[in-house]
Amino acid sequence: QKEVEQDPGPLSVPEGAIVSLNCTYSNSAFQYFMWYRQYSRKGPELLMYTYSSGNKEDGRFTAQVDKSSKYISLFIRDSQPSDSATYLCAMKSGAGSYQLTFGKGTKLSVIP
Amino acid sequence: DAGVTQSPTHLIKTRGQQVTLRCSPKSGHDTVSWYQQALGQGPQFIFQYYEEEERQRGNFPDRFSGHQFPNYSSELNVNALLLGDSALYLCASSLLAGVVETQYFGPGTRLLVL
Fold it and tell me: What is the mean pLDDT of chain B?
């Protein structure tokens, strides 16, 4: 079992839809949770950063972490064609560990 | 404010050769991490450099080595290239502020091994 599981998609939605992206993980030591957006042939861009459980909102984006279920989500409201990209979840454990562990990424297409 | 920069953007090598990739961190950042991203996969951690020392290493062979310079820039060296080393190599820089450390990625170097 991989440490971080993420459905690679592809996921195709109409413009204006609410998008839900998810990751599950097996390592209970993970405490920091991130979502990155990666456009084709570009480096990942940090979207959201969450520590421990709870919700965090930034504009059209909401990140949720449920540590009891080892499950994290990213919601995108009023999706736009410019949101079309691959979304990567990433996780990090606490002090003394510096590496990010990524999911495979979910490829999202928002159709005008 | 310049972000993370990497050079070259693309590189083609043959099996058995050696390659050096370069990274300049975001202004004010002192830590550099390297990741390998194969096609259709998430990035895999290679190692992290801080204060010119390798601070943590992922599950990569000794053929992968690195260096950090006093100006915080970094190099990734790969010896005895294999076909399987073909990937996008990403550099990420960060600054440890308290317990919060967020990594910002460069555009990557795309390496093709023939």
Answer: 93
Query: How far A65 CA lies from chain B's nearest CA (Å)?
Result: 17
The residue ranges of chain A whose pLDDT is under 50 are none
B106 pLDDT higher than 80: yes
The reported pLDDT for the residue numbered B98 is 52
* Min Cα–Cα distance to chain A from B18, Å: 23
The total of other beta-carbon atoms located within 10 Å of residue A87's CB is: 24
Q: What angle (nearest 5°) sits at the alpha carbon of residue A52, between those of residues B98 and A92?
A: 65
Q: What pLDDT score does B97 carry?
A: 60
B window 59-88, beta carbon within 8 A of A: none
CB proximity B98 to A under 8 Å: no
Query: Which residues are registered as beta bridge partners of B66?
Result: B76
B33 to chain A: nearest residue by CA? A99
